[in-house]
Amino acid sequence: MFTTYHEAIEWIHSRLAFGVKPGLERMKWLMNRLGNPEQSIKAVHVAGTNGKGSTIAFTRSVLQEAGYSVGTFTSPFILTFNERISVNGKPIEDEEWLSLVNEIKPLVDELDQTELGAATEFEIITACAFAYFAHVHQVDFVLLETGLGGRLDSTNIAVPILTAITSIGHDHMAILGDTLEQIAAEKAGIIKAGIPMITAVHQPEALAVIQNTAKEKNAECISLHDTCRFDEQQPTETGERFTLRTSRGQYPQLETGLIGTHQRQNASLAVLLIEWLEQEGYITVTKEQIYEGIRQAVWAGRFEKIKDQPRVYLDGAHNEEGIDRLIETVQAHFSSKQVHICFSALKDKPYKQMIQKLEAVSSSIHFVSFDFPRAESAEKLYVCSQLDAKSYDDDPRTVLEFIEEKSDDPSAVVLVTGSLYFISDIRNRMIG
Fold first, then answer.
1. How many other CB atoms are found less than 10 A from the CB of residue 30?
2. SS3 state of residue 69
3. Where do the DSSP E strands lie in 380-431?
4. What span, in angstroms and rounded, lies between the C-alpha atoms of 17 and 46?
């Protein structure tokens, strides 16, 4: 048994040694021993390549505005490890993590000795989340984010009331497949028999896979892009403004508190989730609460401004589709500015293509590494760039120096982007 929070978290992280092992058998074994907590929570299960966290943030904010208590399970973390399990946006306490780990560890030790093999870090964290929301702090709803894929993701033992797929893109292809259809099939694995699902996927080939899976499972499939209209779209100083028309209502001049052209889609998907919950009698919500919830939603590390002079934004664009959305946002918000980029990436990402795309909107790029086993070296990133104004250093502290050099330029915008782990590192260095 552990006596401190730090011992407990170090043990969880030590399970990284067992890598990623897609499959549900170990989770089913753990859930059975814990009394099947996944069956006693009211969950909305969210998968997708990008946009999961933001969609959850919008949905949580509206539900809270309407007076409901909301648990969230998200990954990876940006501010603190504890935020992976949160209630109403507040990470659970150190003592609660310690108690959860002490409950789980004896079971994990026992599981290690079975033919199913050792539980992974993510499986243990997921088991802790189910146990917490079922036995420790019961809430009205749990918004559950997949870690990787969907079909074989540890969270897919959930028994949700509703599922959602935010987007499909090229990421984790070594595990999920090389084509959009293959990746879509993995994400669509969260669709349950008879449980409705809502999606913002727009590529015809990927959407067809999702719709066919839903049909096979007799699950209603609601497509954002088939049922909604977007009008009067424009950026604001602090977010996005647009008019949304759904099959159930109109939302003129809806405003987000999150910057990014893609946040219009994420906010709209959240509105569809809220509309469905109200239609089915799970909640009562007013238009004013929807507007206010969308406006007040926050999500760290997603085009988050952390400094005014120069203006510095953090955005965890960690795959090609994320970079595409970032570029759209830069062009919409900062077309008259000098955009300077700090970039770092993991070794298994298509960073050469990501860098080439970033060069189209960059006045300069500084490449960095950071303390993480899978982080690519700054030099290897640097040599991929054709930009003249480029630099590199493995020390992430040089990001702060890079930013300081731009402090006297009123036209400068510094964008720190790439790996979410990198974003977390820089955020902690700058604002703690």
1. 28
2. coil
3. 390-393, 412-418
4. 27
pLDDT value for 319? 87
Give the phi and the psi of residue 415 in degrees, each rounded to 5.
-120, 115
Percent share of the chain, pLDDT over 90: 86
* 239 confidence band (pLDDT: 50, 70, 90): very high
Average per-residue pLDDT in the chain? 94
Q: Which of 161, 156, 167, 211 is nearest to 22 (CA)?
A: 156
Q: Rg of the chain's alpha carbons, rounded to an integer?
A: 21
CA 97 to chain centre: 21
- For residue 70, pLDDT over 90 is answered with yes
Whose tokens are 């407990």? That residue is 8
State the Cα–Cα distance between residues 24 and 189, nearest whole angstrom: 12
How far is 296 from 84, CA to CA, in rounded Å? 20
User: Quick one: DSSP state of residue 371?
Assistant: S
Q: Is the pTM of this model over 0.70?
A: yes
- CA–CA gap between residue 243 and residue 299 (Å, rounded): 22
Phi and psi angles of residue 90, each rounded to the nearest 5 degrees, phi first: -105, 120
| Class in CATH terms, 5-296 | alpha beta
pLDDT per residue as tens digits for the range 333-360: 999 999 999 999 999 999 999 999 999 9
Cβ–Cβ < 8 Å for 381, 367: yes
Pair type for strands 338-344 and 412-418:
parallel
Average pLDDT rounded to a whole number, residues 304-308? 93
Q: Are 60 and 72 in contact (CB under 8 A)?
A: yes
Q: Which CATH topology does 304-431 take? A: Protein-Tyrosine Phosphatase; Chain A (3.90.190)
Which among 348, 349, 341 has a CA at the least distance from the CA of 319?
349
For residue 409, what are its two tokens? 């330029």
Q: How far apart, in Å, do the first and last CA atoms of the chain sit?
A: 30
The half-sphere exposure of 277 on its side-chain side, counting CA atoms within 13 A, is 30
Q: Where are the alpha helices (DSSP H) in 334-369?
A: 351-358
What pLDDT sits at residue 20? 84
- The predicted-structure confidence for 97-131, as pLDDT tens digits, reads as follows 999 999 999 999 999 999 999 999 999 999 999 99
Task: Give me the residue spans of the domains in the chain.
Answer: 5-296, 304-431
Give the rounded percent of residues in the chain with a pLDDT score beyond 70. 98
DSSP string, 187-254: HGGG--TT--EEE----HHHHHHHHHHHHHTT--EEEHHHH-EEEEEEE-SSSEEEEEE-SS-EEEEE
- Give just the sign of the alpha carbon dihedral 73, 78, 81, 86: negative
